[in-house]
Amino acid sequence: MSAAALLLPLLTLALPLLLACAWVLPARWHPWLHRLTALAPLPALLLALLAPADLSLMLPGVLFGGLWLLDSLARALLVATALLWLLAGLYALRYPLATDEKTPDDGGQPGGSARRFQVFWLLTLAGNLGLLVSRDIAGFYTCFALMTFAGYGLVVHTGRAAARRAGRIYLVMAVIGEMLILSGLILAAAGAGAPALQVLPDAIAGHRHGAWLAALLWLGFGVKAGLAGLHMWLPLAHPVAPTPASAVLSGAMIKAGLLGWLLTLPLGIITLPWAEIALIAALVAALGGALIGVTQQQAKAVLAYSSISQMGLITVIVAAGLIAPGLWPVLGPAALLYALHHALAKGTLFLGVNGLAPRWRPLLWLPALSLAGLPLTTGAAAKLTMKAGLYDLAFPGLMLWLSLAAVGTTLLMLRFMFCLQREAGDKMPAGLMQGVTMVAVLASVTGVMWAVPGMGADWGARWGDAGDLFGLFWPVVVGLIIGGGCWASLRSAQPTGVVRAGVPAGDIVVVIERVLRGIGRLWARRPGKDWRWEKVVQWEDDHLHRIGDVALKLERHLQRWPIILFILLALVLAGLLVR
Amino acid sequence: MSGHWTSWMPLLVLASSLVTALIIFTLPENRHITRGLLNLTGAVIKIVLVVVMVIGVERGMEFELRYTILPGVDFILRADGMAMFFAGLSSVLWLFTTLYAIGYLENSPNRSRFFGFFSLCVTATMGIALAGNLFTFLLFYELLTLSTWPLVTHRGTEKALKAGRTYLIYTLTGGAVLLGGVLWLYGLVGDVEFQEGGLLRHTPEALHGQLSLVFAVLIAGLAVKAAMVPVHGWLPVAMVAPAPVSALLHAVAVVKAGAFGIVRVVYDLYGIEFAASLNLLMPLGIAAAITVLYGSLRALAQSELKRRLAYSTISQVSYIALGISLFGPVGTIGALVHLLHQGFMKITLFFCAGNYAETLGVHRIDELDGAGRRMPLTSAAFTLGAFGMIGAPPLAGFISKWFLGTGAIAAHMHWALWVLIASSILNACYFLPIVHRLWFRPQRGDWPAEQTLSDRFETSGWLLWPAVATGLCIIGAGLFAGLPFSPLSWAQLVASREYLQ
Prior knowledge:
Chain A is an all-alpha fold. Chain A folds into two domains: 3-499, no CATH class; 532-577, no CATH class.
């Protein structure tokens, strides 16, 4: 342990948190704070690039014993994460954030709601960077929760009805996820004894109910990773957030769920009985996300569904590791590489939504086709590594399914470019935003390879097998042909059928809301009328009050005759005791 | 009684607030500055004395005052680890509450009466903490009842008097039941001191059946102040009291006295291992679990901020009883540490509720929209308290829940973990909407009754800084739980002494 190790928590956690606190300073400081906020991830990025190998720090006084570690896994993720946050932060300098016009008490510069955004931005950043290097159970969970709850501030920032709805669903899912994780961690850690994360995989593997514990963690972290069935917050929350926030939500924060899996699940140790179900669910997400995404009307919603689809592919890799522990040494690096690739590519695409002038917009085809796996891109490298591991799994139809998902992704990207063309039109973004987006494009196509130790060296050697190349190539071509045909026909004719109606963003949550609405109507016996959350709250108030009134009446009676109650209570207790 | 200085320490701790109380009663109403100084001096002296004793106890010193009142009945004040736990909490929070109360009651009548009983109330709490046997405990327990009644009814309104009456009916009946239990026990085995590990385990087996019944009676008596279902009815009604009183009632004095009494009876009278061997813990755990869930459900339905906090207290205090019922050192640590953590979190929330009421005239939850921008520091403190209650890391409440949860697993009572998780979800359901309103809803029209209490800050510094300070304590107690003398470390020390056998 060295003094340099102290930089781990200082630069990732303390610095953004201090900056967040600094926003209480009077308005004349705000222009400076604004710039510092944008640069807040830079020290962590430099640390990730320059720090010596396996830097670690132990502080027994923090929580149950604080533990920080910068191993190759953390370093690779930290580079990608900090870089994306930095780019998005710079982008946000010129992004219109103020949602309210009248802010006399804040000096108006930047507006009160913009200041609120900066604070939540920094809190979320602290959580996201911190969780990458925290390796004690409590510290990791702390950062995870900080990121999750502070992220709510980014989602609901605009205050519009859609943002409020998205925020509500985000929060409900977040609480469910946090509770699943907490119960999983408590159950796994109770037997482990040590406060370090690294004991958990073995503890779960050796536990009598290990499969159940792993399932709790799988689902808990899966909320963040957009697991099929728990994904519904994602296509709502990612589009409504301001664009720089969408970029980090979909690019960086979503990977926290993956890291949670990598650090806690017994990967490479045992086979879990439910892993095949998880694999099939992940395949459904990979293709289903693409199919639903194609029907979306908004460019950002298309990207959000693409995130579900891509995270589905990463989930396939992890689930395969839970089916065949022996393959994990190959699959583990593949999952990481895919995550890095997706982080930068998806972040870049989000930035590109408002970030490029019309004539530069075709640059976005680079990260877009990289996601689809066009040869010679990072996406292709990630897919090759993934397939190398999955061939040995011998899961029937897996390869075909993955190729279909790649066709789907190509279609999604076409749909994205189509929607973008329609939405953005001839808008001319600020120069800084354009510059940042171009840097992001560059980084997404090339940069990620350097971050992973060993990957840069052999990435040229991977292009040898022609069969592999063909496997990557045909889905893109098929996708382009189908999509191009659709695009051409859409230009000439009015869209019909599914494409026109579309699947509403959030898919199953709409069904859930409808069911709730129905129940609400039934119970309230109030037909018609638009359903709104306020009404449900009102209904809850009214009816819980009615339940409460019964309790209240009871309480009033008890108030009058407490002594009777005591005798009763003592008798009951005595009855329980003397058996 | 030995002349050694150590035996005078417990008495001095009591005297620091008792003497303050007596002087304040004689002060004329308009001597505000003298009264304030007296209050603060008393509070600071008490903290210094408690710190000296905490360090002493940690090093194994004995602080004991013993005085025989009747043959066979002793008056004992003793500072052991458990006592210092409660005494430390009370002395620190008393200081904050005194500061807050000085600001809160500015320009209101009858302040001598208020602060006199306020100090008397703290004397009683310290007495409860330091009591070395059931008799002494009962003495201060009743003193607490009587000294808090004038505080609850302080405003003198019809509603306040009614609440005071309800409060008295409940607590006096509870006290009577407790007295019955104490006498029954005295008849069986004579005067029994509190001792780590408990002395009752040495009683002959023939008496065990009766001892179980006595246990039920004692817990039933204590459950009133601990506001356990179904004898919790006084607590939401007592909400009419001024904010500093509510803060004290919910965080330190009354509910905690009940919970601490349960701790004493289980650990230092019966002994946790003896209690477990008599199968006394399971019924206690079930009663606690019911209270935890019932309190949260009722909190959900409240539309008034203080009432919601009151039901939340009912739920949270029973975490302590739930932890006690989890046999094993981890559960014990969870119960003890929550005794402190709940105090810091709830006092912060009540300070904030008081600030909203005083500064903006806001009492209802739906009036809080946009309060975060008007009162950012108060709202930040409230947010900390709320997230602490939910159990979000790295706040104090997370440490409690973690140890209660792992304690439940260690005691093979998995259902208790699910009770905790369900309660956490309910906590989130009734706290997160408030936090959302504070920060993300635009203000709707004018505040109900806004006052400008300070030119520089959002509200009077007397009201603001105690809330901020206790808010920071919530972070400190959680984030630095591993440091020596943190609540967690002290709980671990005390718990290790309970399981020596």
